[in-house]
Amino acid sequence: MASQSAVPPSPTPGLAPAASEGRDSGSSLQGGQFAGAGDKIFYWGTAAFAGVALLLCVLIGLNLYRAAAPAIHEYGGAFLKNSTWDPNTDVYGAWPYIYGTLVSSLLALVIAVPISIGTAIFLTELAPRWMRTPVGFLVELLAAVPSVVYGLWGIFVMVPALRSVQEVLKARLGFLPFFQGPAQGYSMMAGALILAIMILPFVTSVSREVIKAVPRTQREAAFGLGATHWEAIKGPILRYARSGIMGAIVLGLARAVGETMAITMVIGNGNKASLSLLEPGNTLASALANQFAEAGGKQLPALMYLALTLFGVTIIINAIARLMIVNMSRGMAGMVRD
Length: 338
Description:
single chain; 338 residues; mainly alpha; MetI-like fold; 11 helices; globular
């Protein structure tokens, strides 16, 4: 009997575990509530950041429209087609500046894109390992050079050298409308060249990262089927990376369209839309930089109309490029499924 009374009573089965489970479930429920609140804060916080970016674009557009409203009401859509810009008679037209912006930017892409993509392919696929990092660093260093430095280099180095090149082009190809006029150096050709040099590091850097991101299996599959280096690059590697490379080209185009200081210093600042690359030209950004400080009367709203036009051209170019990237991505997805 004594031995039986010495044995402590056993707890009721299930009571202690149930209590501990209750405590665990309560703590996990509380943690879940905190986690849910954190997710909501994170979601709305990032949504607010995205909304701020969108709001800034809308506010910039509205403010430009408000400042340009007098010119919009007076000149209307004819402002975009008129080729005369004369502050003395208050006659304003934006076509020479629109033409100069588009031609200089597209010429810069024609020059820079093959060099940029070739450099990216070399650094990613062909260059020795000891060369990739220093050469890549030097290329990306070009992006850190201020635009005014490019402009000064263009004035003192590029333009004098370009005069002799233009004289040869005029002598040999002067029968073409693209190489007519005086070989004075300051010209649309000089503006396109300086833009090409400035956008080259942007396109190269982004293209290089995109090509590096191509899965290793794509390369191994191509080499396993007996493809040469060239066949592997032009086939699966560039096909896989083409949407990203297109994005790099769009980035370079946006940089070229908005460039102001460097191109203002070398393009010649002429107010005529000419087919000749030897003639001085002008862009929307350079016209604003040259005339805004001294503008008054009707010229100021006309310049704000130019700024609104530049804003619209940038949005249209990026929208078209974005649609091209989406179509390319869909095509790639279809190829992967097939």
